[in-house]
Write a structure and sequence with these properties.
The structure is a single chain. This protein folds into two domains: 69 residues, 434 Repressor (Amino-terminal Domain) (Orthogonal Bundle), CATH 1.10.260.40; 110 residues, Sandwich (Jelly Rolls), CATH 2.60.120. Strands 3-4-5-12-7-10 form a six-stranded antiparallel beta sheet, with no helix packed on it. The chain has a four-stranded antiparallel beta sheet with strand order 6-11-8-9. The protein has a two-stranded antiparallel sheet with strand order 1-2. The longest helix has 16 residues. The chain is of the alpha+beta class. The protein is built from five helices and twelve strands. A hairpin with a 2-residue loop joins β8 and β9.
Length: 194
C-alpha cells in the first residue's frame, strides 16, 4: 500500500474512491470483517482505504471490484462527474499506482449502462500486475499493444504481444499483465461486459 508521506492535500479521485468504497460496502450490508473475508484484504487496509488514509493500489481495487462484480472502469466512472459524450484527452481520468508501475487512462466517456469501453494502460519495464479473478466473470477483453511488449497471461497461458498485436479473450479466472522490457509498454484494452 502506498501512503501519503507529505502534507499535500489528498488526491480528489482518491477521496471520491474512498467514499464510494465505503458506500459499496454499505449497499451490500457487509461488515469490514465480512468484506475482508470475501476479498482477502485485511480489515485494517479496507478501513484505511475507506477513510482515504491510503491510496488504493491496483491489486486492492482489483480484488474489491471482483467482490462487487464490476470492472475498475465502472468503479472509476461512479466517482466522476456527469457523463459526457466526448471526453478530450486532457480531461480523461488517469489513475496511477506508482508502486506497481501502472498508469491507467479511462479513454471512453464514462456512462453507466453501456457494455463496452476503451482503457489505455502503461506499465514500466518489469512491472507485474496480477488479478486473481475478473471483476465480472465472462467479461470479454481485446488487448492491443501500441508501444513496447506486453506479456498477458490468461489462466496458465501466457501470450507475448508486440506492437500491433491484439489478443481477444474472455476472462473466467486469474490474469496477469507484465512488461518484460526493456522499455515500458503502452496498450489499449477494449472491455466488453457480458
Amino acid at each position: 500500500m502506498r501512503e501519503s508521506v507529505d502534507a499535500s492535500p489528498p488526491d480528489p479521485l482518491d477521496t471520491l474512491l474512498a467514499a464510494r468504497l465505503a458506500a459499496l460496502r454499505g449497499e451490500h450490508h457487509w461488515s469490514l470483517d465480512e468484506l475482508a473475508s470475501r476479498s482477502g484484504v485485511s480489515r485494517s487496509t479496507l478501513s484505511r482505504a475507506e477513510r482515504g488514509e491510503i491510496s488504493p493500489t491496483t491489486s486492492l481495487l482489483g480484488r474489491l471490484c471482483a467482490v462487487y462484480g464490476r470492472p475498475l472502469s465502472q468503479l472509476l466512472s461512479e466517482v466522476e462527474a456527469e457523463p459526457a459524450q466526448l471526453v478530450r484527452a486532457a480531461d480523461q481520468t488517469v489513475w496511477t499506482d506508482p508502486a506497481a508501475g501502472f498508469v491507467r487512462r479511462s479513454v471512453s466517456p464514462p456512462q453507466a449502462g453501456l457494455r463496452a469501453e476503451v482503457v489505455e494502460g502503461t506499465l514500466r519495464a518489469g512491472a507485474d500486475v496480477p488479478y486473481e479473478r475478473p471483476p465480472v466473470p465472462g467479461m470479454e477483453q481485446h488487448v492491443w499493444v501500441l508501444e513496447g511488449t506486453l506479456e498477458f497471461t490468461v489462466g496458465h497461458e501466457a501470450h507475448l504481444l508486440n506492437v500491433g498485436d491484439c489478443l481477444r479473450t474472455r476472462l473466467w479466472g486469474p490474469t496477469r499483465l507484465r512488461c518484460p522490457g526493456p522499455g515500458p509498454v503502452r496498450y489499449a484494452i477494449v472491455v466488453v461486459q457480458p
